[in-house]
Design goal:
By secondary structure, the protein is an alpha/beta fold. The protein has a single domain, classed as Rossmann fold, CATH 3.40.50. The chain has nine helices and seven strands; from the N terminus they run βαβαβαβαβααβαααβ. Helix 1 links the parallel strand 1 and strand 2. Bound molecules: nicotinamide-adenine-dinucleotide (NAD). Its EC number is 1.1.1.100. GO terms for molecular function: 3-oxoacyl-[acyl-carrier-protein] reductase (NADPH) activity.
Amino acid sequence: MRPKTCVVTGSSNGIGRGIAERFGEEGCNVVVNYRSSKEAAEEAVETVEASGGSAIAVQADVTDIEQVEQMREAAHEAFGQVDVLVNNAGINQDVLFKEMSHEEWDVVLDVHLDGAFHCTQVFYDDLVDAEQGRLINISSIVGKGGNFGQANYATAKAGIFGFTRTLALELAREGTTANCVAPGFISTRMVEELPEKVKERIRNDTPLGRLGTVKEVAEVVAFLASDRSSFITGEIIDINGGKDL
Ligand code: NAD
């Protein structure tokens, strides 16, 4: 059987890299997308290949549709049609709403929402043509519950819920599913940079008593990308150690 080809945006580091590496373990072809971390992306390619997959690193800023179109060309040239798109690229610019500039608002919405829009538009026909096409969006617990200093990020992540559910409806007749995961606080740069006091509070508020790991998110994404999830669509899967209980 032809290996699946998976595009993971923002996958030189963090959760995206964990997902790319997990796809490698399944023998997939992986497009490791990065914006500026070329070296880290090339390391991710090596890890994917060492675990039995194939991979290429492709530079593209997801806020620029022309760069995303070039990424599609590179993916097609290396592997042919794409089966799985994971919209993972993300940033945060945390500041209390009263002090938030329009630029801080725009830049976060641009990466999460315009980025998901561009990538999904560009890879839409691939997902439709794939035998078991999969769109997987990475949202966040913050999209559900909000968070101090994250009005921009919470709005973007809540937008991803509506985007996912609508795409699930529009893609369903094509046999393609669209789901999203909503991780709680996961041990990556985005969370490790928080003050120790804040991390301690997160651990205390989480029934399982710790931060999540990249592997724990990647495992769920690998399931959603696989044929094993064929009757699941439009879902938001929480991966949060019970934090919103
Ligand atoms: P991270 O900063 O390690 O990874 C984000 C990646 O996205 C980086 O590699 C970055 O370069 C890339 N990126 C940013 N802007 C981009 C652009 N314009 N074009 C292409 N790539 C771009 O952070 P992470 O924690 O691994 O986050 C990954 C995803 O998971 C994000 O969408 C984030 O919002 C989400 N998330 C993270 C957590 C967490 O606790 N870490 C929780 C919930 C959701």
